[in-house]
Here is the input.
Amino acid sequence: MAKNIYLSVVIPAYNEEINLKRGVLDSVFNYLIAKKFIWEVIISNDCSNDKTKEIAEEFVKKHKGFRLINQPVNLGKGGNVIAGIKEARGEHILFADMDQSTPINQFELFIPKFNEGFDVVIGSRSGRPGQSIIRKLMAYGFVFLRTIILRLPYKDTQCGFKAFTKEAANKIFERMKIFGQKPRSGRGSVTAGFDLEMLYIARKLKLKVAEVPVEWYEYGQRKEVNPIKDSWEGLVDLLKIRLNAILGRYK
Here is the structure.
């Protein structure tokens, strides 16, 4: 009888040629190959227009346990993550950014929380070394707004390093309204509302969520930030989530 997969790692990809050439997938492989549990890695390619697909295909051919999924249409980062999670077969599902700004070895800090019975474990960045002043100001403003509008108690909702039990993931993602049913095209951009809707639903369902401090580094290959556009979209998403909650759409 085949053994169960303990961990599925979902890595969204959009124009990640530079990061792939930097050897990020080697670091993921080297960490996982030393583990005693069974694992899989799903690379979800969101219609990249550089050499992401070709480089990832070559890597997958040479590394057992890795799979590449090429999305037929551009879904944006949120939709791309969800598409990857739907393919995951593990008892636990982790999604992590391709650039490994939070290194894969930080999953070690999540395991005790799952053993304690938590349904969701999220990474919390401290200090954010190397992050631009613009990003830091946007983060502070967003913390204030999400606290007022959604009353989420977490220090960091936007860290791209989150894990779920399979059961919790199914409950959360089947209820997502803004991102789950009609994924929004965004060319790989980070949309704040995706993480917020996900965590708001988890809290609404009374799932046990743990927030764990993790390492985080700015590697300089992050997607471009438009302060006005991104801030406006984040505010709109906050209000949409609040409206959906008032209308009882997350039951």
